[in-house]
Write a structure and sequence with these properties.
The chain has a single domain, classed as Purple Acid Phosphatase, chain A, domain 2 (4-Layer Sandwich), CATH 3.60.21.10. Helices cover 27% and strands 23% of the residues. By secondary structure, the protein is α/β, with parallel strands linked by helices. Strands 5-6-7-8-10-9 form a six-stranded mixed β-sheet. The chain has five helices and eleven strands; from the N terminus they run βαβαβαβββαβαββββ. Helix 4 packs parallel to helix 5. 46% of the residues are buried.
């Protein structure tokens, strides 16, 4: 029987409008022949934001994202419309037998409403739970994960969602110094990502 091809993603976050970082990530996505680019927020912000997702589109890469605290709701809508990037903070998406769902924290949110966050994630998970693989994305990190070394407490709702739904992968950004950290919660592989990006096979 033919072995099923692995689905490859490039996960990144927090490049804050730096178009040179976006170009490097797009080049990496191309070189690694990834199937999907997943951005965990703070895509825009400190520097220029014009054409920020253009390098990915030019290389024919599909992009999904959740807005971070640097994205306004308007900016998130603009990125979706202009580049055809799916905002999984708004709605889940499916790619073949892979489901992606998540929660954004736009408009300067530095913490999540725990009740609403869990309810939103549960509702989306229900729609994709029968798919072979699931990826959950948030800008902010989950409670009890390594990113808490920063002194910023993670979200209890995200932790509960990981423990109950056991997605194959959970991605978060926000804590720049946590980039590169990884761990496991049950069967879920947890990754803190940042501007350098990380290629992950699902």
């Amino acid at each position: 029987m033919e072995k099923q091809k692995k689905f490859k993603i490039l996960a990144a976050s927090d490049f804050h409008g730096d178009s040179s970082a976006a170009k490097k990530l797009a080049e990496l996505a191309d070189k690694e022949k990834v199937d999907l680019v997943v951005l965990a927020g703070d895509i825009t912000g400190l520097i220029e934001t014009d054409n920020i997702l253009k390098p990915f589109v030019e290389r024919g890469k599909k992009v999904v994202f959740v807005p971070g605290n640097w994205e306004s709701s308007e900016t998130a809508n603009f990125l979706s419309k202009l580049y055809g990037a799916e905002n999984v903070g708004e709605h889940y998406v499916k790619y073949g037998n892979i489901g992606i769902f998540g929660i954004g924290s736009p408009d300067w949110q530095m913490s999540l409403n725990e009740k609403k966050t869990f309810e939103k994630l549960k509702k989306d998970f229900e729609k994709i739970k029968n798919l072979e693989k699931k990826i959950m994305v948030s800008h902010l990190h989950a409670a009890g994960t390594k990113a808490e070394f920063s002194g910023f407490r993670g979200s209890r709702a995200l932790r509960k969602a990981i423990e109950e739904f056991q997605p194959d992968i959970f991605l978060s950004g926000h804590i720049h110094e946590a980039e590169g950290l990884s761990e496991k919660i049950g069967k879920t592989r947890v990754f803190s990502v940042g501007r350098k990006g990380r290629v992950i096979e699902v």
